[in-house]
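input
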Amino acid sequence: MTHKKTFAFDYLEGAHPAILEKFVETNMEQTAGYGLDPYSALAKEKIRQACQAPDAGVEFLVGGTQTNAIVINALLRSYQGVIAADSGHIATHEAGAIEFGGNKVLTLTATMGKISAEQVEEYLIEFYKDEARQHMVQPGMVYISQPTEMGTLYSLAELENLAAVCQRYKLPLFLDGARLAYALASQQNDIRLTDLARLCDVFYIGGTKCGAFFGEAVVLPNPELIPHFFTVIKQKGALLAKGRLLGIQFDALFTDGLYERIGKEAVEAAMAIQAGLKSNGYDLLFEASANQVFAVVNQEQLDRMAEKIDFAIWEPYGPDKLVIRLTTSWATRAEDVAWFVDWLGSAAASAD
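output
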């Protein structure tokens, strides 16, 4: 059986070698549990320094859905909901985790995966004009992701505008950074960690999809926004007893610029794939910004490509085409990308 190369997801490999080495080096050490160990403390301090937020609260959780559900539930009252793009992860691919926690996702129509400050403000104006609003779910916060579910990026101006609306209406702004390394590394990006700490009330730095075995680092620039967040995490059953496993990973990721460096390699691989698709006659849904490339294919192209690589089928496109997603990661090998681009050329030549 021929082993196919995969560009389907960005969490298929284990962890970056620097993390593996640190695990082996520290394996037999005895440390305090629940993230109260020296490695977690050091990782938190490195994240504060990177964000230029010396007083920020930093806590580690295991996965993205868990993080989204706990943060949102901790911020909202039972009668409140979270405003999000209709394509956002919490609205589509989290199995109703937010609703299961007792809060509703209030969706706005996304454009290229993004919602705008104007949309949010219009929604809020209409809500507060409604005389029946006491019978309705009250908007209590705003959720976005960087990059978005479509791989697009918010600009600094867009983020500043969203933050201004949220501040005006006293709504927390929460940014999902599950793929944040790839956003930070994009040539189209103008948002830094310092901007997130300045403009967002909560955000997280993704590890699971960005070089770690698992883990997300939640940053609270003002830790009083969620009092006793550590206890909230414990109450939700999400406090890892061997918390140093998270701390060690983020300590490694935030040493010598590793987090942004591995993001850059993934983005470069995605740009090479995108260029190969374009030069061989494939249509793109739009130009990629980070590590996800969306191509429009017919059935013949789909079948031919599926013999050689794994990818994700995204959505129908018109009557007889599909959108597919090709995703790179920190572990994508340059030789695999080169092979795929060469194969695209050969396949195009044989089809002519």
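quick obs: The mean pLDDT is 96.
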